[in-house]
Structure to design on (376 residues):
């Protein structure tokens, strides 16, 4: 029938197996994201010691009193910065949740028209809320009020809060969790679905039987990759629905939804190919499971699925840079939190994931061919 026909026929066989175990497959797809969303989502309910950078150009008694009020509880941790530029660099890296700039002359004008400038990073809304509330409480004790400004202009008041809209002002913490979870679910599901079905067929003798027929060997490999992609994509889609029901949002709207689907598909395909490469070399299911988990869990962690990569130690950053999940997680969060994904970023992320997919597919084909020659 040719490569396409053989691949389609073998993929239908995999889908029939999926349909036969539909209850278990749906339950697995539901439980994994649901547990992680409930557990990780609860972590963001009440953060403590939220880091905020304070630039004190005044150094008067009023400014010092304001800083002491900020540090009076355990809600925020004040990080001193020499210049506003330095503080904003910390904000852009995600090291701090807010920047407070106390201008020169604040003490002399306190209680009249003095101004404290506050820049907020809304990519981590729960931390932002804690920082904003603490700053507002401190200004209130000085007899001031916090006035939030908009992009169009700055509102007047003792304290003007200028939001960093580049991070998405309407986001919430659960969107941060779900964004990383989707990429983790699809990569994790791909590795264990595609690899396990390959090893199961080999243990049952089905793979050897396929190799004795005129079926294209590459079609056997592709059918496994497509099946792993489908099931991992299905699990991620279920996770997305659960996340949206739990309160996550796709700030980029309909276009962002399709961008998100495309990125998830590429991750699923690439890691399904990697799974076949691993399964081609593994002798037992237990060995494959151990190796697969050893690879995928660190990659998910270092890709920012759980915590921002900016918080990782410096010696891990080279791994972060070459990890394809890093770019996938950032792109998904751009869609869900920032509300937009620049075309150039989408193209570059797609190119990275397609390159990873091509390398893994080629590696899988080479290793699978060697294994099939031994079985045939």
């Amino acid at each position: 029938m040719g490569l396409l026909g053989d691949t389609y026929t073998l993929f239908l066989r995999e889908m029939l197996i999926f349909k036969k175990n539909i209850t278990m497959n749906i339950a697995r797809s539901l439980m994994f994201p649901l547990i992680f969303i409930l557990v990780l989502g609860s972590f963001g309910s009440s953060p403590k010691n939220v880091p905020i950078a304070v630039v004190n150009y005044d150094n008067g008694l009023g400014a010092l009193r304001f800083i002491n009020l900020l540090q009076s509880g355990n809600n925020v941790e004040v990080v001193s910065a020499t210049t506003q530029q330095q503080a904003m660099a910390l904000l852009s890296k995600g090291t701090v949740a807010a920047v407070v700039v106390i201008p020169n002359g604040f003490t002399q004008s306190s209680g009249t028209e003095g101004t404290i400038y506050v820049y907020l990073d809304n990519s981590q809304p729960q931390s932002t809320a804690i920082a904003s509330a603490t700053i507002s409480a401190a200004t209130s004790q000085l007899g001031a009020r916090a006035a939030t400004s908009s992009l169009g202009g700055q509102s007047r008041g003792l304290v003007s809060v200028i939001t960093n809209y580049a991070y998405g002002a309407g986001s919430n913490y659960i969107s941060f969790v779900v964004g990383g979870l989707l990429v983790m679910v699809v990569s994790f599901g791909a590795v264990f679905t595609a690899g396990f079905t390959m090893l199961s067929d080999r243990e049952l003798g089905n793979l050897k039987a396929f190799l004795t027929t005129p079926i294209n060997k590459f079609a056997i490999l592709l059918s496994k990759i497509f099946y792993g992609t489908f099931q991992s994509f299905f699990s991620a889609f279920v996770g997305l629905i659960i996340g949206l029901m739990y309160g996550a949002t796709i700030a980029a709207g309909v276009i962002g939804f399709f961008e998100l689907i495309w990125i998830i598909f590429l991750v699923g395909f690439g890691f399904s190919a990697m799974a076949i490469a691993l399964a081609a070399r593994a002798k037992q299911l237990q060995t494959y499971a151990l190796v697969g988990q050893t690879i995928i869990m660190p990659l998910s962690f270092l890709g920012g699925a759980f915590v921002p990569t900016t918080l990782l130690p410096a010696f891990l950053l080279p791994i972060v840079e070459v990890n394809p999940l890093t770019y996938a997680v950032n792109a998904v969060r751009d869609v869900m939190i920032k509300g937009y994904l620049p075309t150039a970023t989408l193209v570059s992320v797609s190119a990275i994931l397609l390159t990873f997919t091509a390398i893994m597919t080629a590696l899988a084909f080479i290793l699978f061919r060697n294994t099939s020659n031994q079985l045939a």
Observations:
- Residues 343-375 form the longest helix (33 residues).
